[in-house]
Amino acid sequence: QVQLVESGGGLVQAGGSLRLSCAASGRINSIYAMGWFRQAPGKEREFVAAIRWSGDGIKTGYADPMKGRFTISRDNAKDTVWLQMNSLRPEDTAVYYCALRPNWYDNYEVPIKPGLYDYWGQGTQVTVSS
Hints:
The chain has about 130 residues and is an all-beta fold. The protein is built from no helices and 11 strands. The radius of gyration is 14 Å and the shape is globular.
């Protein structure tokens, strides 16, 4: 059993910053990638960012609206990833979920679809006021 615990969400004004963290624990034999997704009320869960550290090193991927504003990183010693979110906008308001994929995927690409991840956290609310 693998557990993912997110933290760092909250209320922030537009233009502000937040840093989310996700700690993985439990029976973790391997980690291929960890990612962040978000879901706003009435909308589908969407990809935010992901990082994989198998194969030839570390590779990251971002959804287009997040490029240049969000940064995903990991702690080498711990099974923890962070999502630094800058220049936040009201449309970034959502519940943010952490996800983990243990196994290899598609020539070491960064998985961006929710169905490619096996474990999920409970989510942390991010609210950006205008």
